[in-house]
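Note to self: the last two entries modelled the partners one at a time, which told us nothing about the interface. This time every component goes in together.
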Amino acid sequence: MTDTGMETLTEPYYEALKRGELVVQHCKACNRNIMYPRHLCPFCYETDLSWVLSSGRGVLHSYAVQRLGPPSGFEDDLPYAVGVVKLDDGVQLLGRLWPDPDGEWSGYSCDGRVEFHGADAVEIGRRPVPWFRRAG
Amino acid sequence: MPDSDPASGAATASALPGRGSPEEAVFIGLGELPSGRYPDRPFMGQLVHAAVAAVRDAGLTVPDIDTILLIPCLHSFADQADLIFSRLVEELGLHGRAKSSFMLHSGGSTSDNTIRSAAGLIASGHARNVLVVQSEKWGSAPVGEMIDMLTANGIPREWEKLSGLTFNAVGALITCRYMAASGSTAADMASVCVALREWSRLNPNAMYRDRTLTVEEILNSKMVTDPLHALECPMLADGAVAFVMTSAGNARRAGRDAWVRIAGSGGCVSHYSIGQEADLAVLGWEKAGVDAYEQAGWGPQEADLAEVYDSYAAVLTSGLEGLGLAPKHEAARMFASGEFSPGGRLPVNTNGGLLSAGHTGVGGGSALLAEGVRQLLGRADPSRQVAGATRAVCGGTGGTYMDSQVLLLEGVAR
Ligand SMILES: [Zn+2]
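The predicted structure of the combined assembly is written out below.
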């Protein structure tokens, strides 16, 4: 799945998701958060990088509900939703969106508040991605 | 270096260096095969037929071509490897004569980047007569395999692929944001596809030249990826396009009576990952347009037509707005009121675009660019030829709409 050597970037992120946490990369040299994780800081090009716990809170920039034509391996997930979240931490990312209790996403809207709410260990073990739900 | 030519338009302080000079690169020939499902047309066969058609259209012979720039296919890496390793040179009998043959690639914006590269080679004397050619077999390829290929490439495999992101979802993310920002309705978005179908019905090379399309049909078609209905998603097509470019001096000496010059170009690579785009309803169009218009010395209000990438309606509406061809947030509603349809205020995507002429992979942008050149040469079918067209705004974008590329074209009659 990932290039040899990429584990330095992927493992801390995936391991946090497995613990039910969302972390983002942080540059100690210029004190900025970075997403997606990089080999060097894309602002100051230093390599003194660490990980910080994200607030997990932010706004939904946009979202889409996949109903037909999924990639291989996602047939049993249909329907499912993905969204671009702008975190309060100053970074943004793509993640999955939990359906509302009716199994749909009609309660979501662009610029609505969302919060990180991780999936269970089995799902994250299979696909380490962040999940978000609506927030008040 | 001459800075202006009275025949080529008004001189301005921001004129492109070499404007009107004999060294500047111009389009002199075009070739195109019909787009659609043509399982009996092999990849290399399409490529040589389009190539030879363009060379003949340019009034040249194949041995006049010294440089070949290849726009890649996506249906097969084996066929792409044939491009990389100069198979076309041998197929055209140019082995031992061609100076250079190579492939450039930036997804759907490849045509813009390739034309810029060709123009640079010509203007700097590294190439004389350049063939730019593209062939794609998407229409005959298995759709499931193509979905997997597209989700395996151009989407960050570590950070986004595991979410199940598809290219239709990428289009849906842009559409959802555009609709929220602009207040456009589902019917407004569908009307973009309807206008493109009106155009494709006038294009004998389009995939959909017979069937009409209505807003009602679109809204009643299956929801594929909210908010995109099935009839708002592009159909993968086979197709091929070729251009021949040379210097204005060569065109003049060869006795050509019309050619097309590149008045200005601009671009902005706004992201790689769709999850990192700052504004999915804007993309990189605004910056790309500002740079291009400044170089050309004319503005969007002086354009006679536009040919802007349209794999999804919102990609086109964001492009038209960012390029100043529609007020911000108004483009979809303007489609609904017919302003960009045949007979409307500004002809847009007069070949029917990717959405109705067919999505030929990397070639979708090439076909739009070819239509822009064709219109400025006055050689479109009379039913869709824009009368007196001299200025065209052409826009392309690739991958997850990572880059917005603009070429401003001008027709020159001697
Ligand atoms: Zn830094």
